[in-house]
Amino acid sequence: MPRLELAAPLFALALLTRAADARVPAFVRQTGLTCSQCHVSWTTAPDFTFTGMRFRLNGYRLPRVTEVGAGPEGAIGHEELEQTLARMLSARARSTLVYKTKAPGDPTLEPPTAGPAVSNLIGPIDGYITGPIGEHVGLWSDFCGYGGRDVSIPAFEETTCVRSDGYIGLSDLSAQISTIANDNVFGLAGTVVKAGRAPRFMTMTPATAPNHQPYAPGIEGGGYAYTLYGLYAFLADRVGVKIGVEPGEGDQNFKRFNYRFEGGVFALNSDAGWLQLGWTLRAGNDMTPIVAGVPGVTALTKGQLGYTGESAGRARRAMYSVGYGFTDRGPHSFVATANLSLETDEYTDGGSSRLRATGTNLRYCFQRKYGVDAYVYGFPKWEYTDPTGVTHPIPENTGVMGRLMYSPGLNLTLYIEGANTQSARLDQDWRQGSYWSVNAQFLW
């Protein structure tokens, strides 16, 4: 890469490092709490502490104020902290200082060559308006703008508004009405997601098993926004349950619905150590097919028309997860998760598909400044049975990704990551590709 091409990213990196000294993310300014009381770290998506997860479920209010005191980043102590905060405005800027990719390739042809090292200094920029409204309503909104340079992203990552031809507009809108009764949190939530993947209930880390569980086709697929409405309860800081309905993924035919259930149990339930067992189930007849976009499938469907949301006779998505973590045991913070996806589609032309995927994630942080992530995921089974009854495998290899992080302050994260990449093909195991990148994210 020419020296001049590297100068701008390095200059921007210096500016971001200076800006991080202020350490004033919006919730810190308003609550007096530290960033670290709700998050362990953040890169493409934050890790919640147990306190942070409860804070979100209660509409961005602390269920029990006196449990949490202010740390060095905060300005006020817990005895002065109000449960209801003002709405806040925040922004996030992401920059890929340099990245290099090598595309997956047809194994019958010569291997593809790696592309040149390039930079994408101005990546997605998100603006957030979020926080309590009155005593019982909480709001989270994400407005995203992106100029349109694609960067390889693993299947399980949050993709927000990244697309090759650019995007500007609403990425995520979530509103909830919550109340506390006898230390239990009860709520009604509504979510509209135009880009990326919808958040899971009680989530404390990303879903690491490749899945179509919360898929939102509004950006990449050009369809309508994903919506979810549901009732939830978080009981005695131990058990959470949510029941909801989705009026479809890819169209506005409200005769088709999907139903959703999410549950979780915390065997351990504190920032010093949490252990969560979780289950998510979606079932209905209006989901994006799990073989949509896989080359070779369209030619085998009746009429060679391919599959859309309206092609689903019945669809089922289930995810099982277990996670363990602790925060600030001395200088150490740690998170480990394992996930299993089980997905089945039955199509109106007599075809069907099945997917079984697993994934695990290990994250470790030292002094909240240095961190390492390791992701491993695989596909024990992915197959498509055409309308004539012939079963076709969709081979996929084990995926791996590693990330090294440095956070001068929790509103700035610098990280280097690398991963292999894959391309799903019917009856053919394509040669894996790869990418590596150097990135910066700044949160105001």
Describe the structure.
There is one protein chain. The protein has a single domain, classed as Porin (Beta Barrel). Helices cover 7% and strands 48% of the residues. The chain has helices at 3-20, 26-31, 50-57, and strands spanning 39-42, 46-48, 88-102, 118-120, 125-133, 137-146, 167-181, 184-193, 226-235, 239-246, 258-270, 273-284, 312-329, 332-347, 352-366, 370-385, 391-393, 399-409, 412-421, 433-443.
Span between N and C termini?
31 Å
DSSP summary, beta strand count = 20
Tell me the structural class: mainly beta
Helix content: under 10%
CATH superfamily: Porin
Summarize the biggest pleated sheet.
16 strands, antiparallel, barrel
How large is the count of helical segments? Answer: 3
Query: What number of structural domains do the residues give?
Result: 1
CATH class equals Mainly Beta
Shape: globular
Radius of gyration: 22 Å
Unreliable spans are 1-24, 65-84, 152-156, 218-222
In the sheet with the most strands, the strands line up as 3-5-6-7-8-9-10-11-12-13-14-15-16-18-19-20
Query: How much of the polypeptide forms β-strand, as a percent range?
Result: over 45%
What is the CATH architecture assignment? Beta Barrel
Task: Write the element-wise H/E pattern from the N-terminal end onward.
Answer: HHEEHEEEEEEEEEEEEEEEEEE
What is the name of the CATH topology?
A: Porin
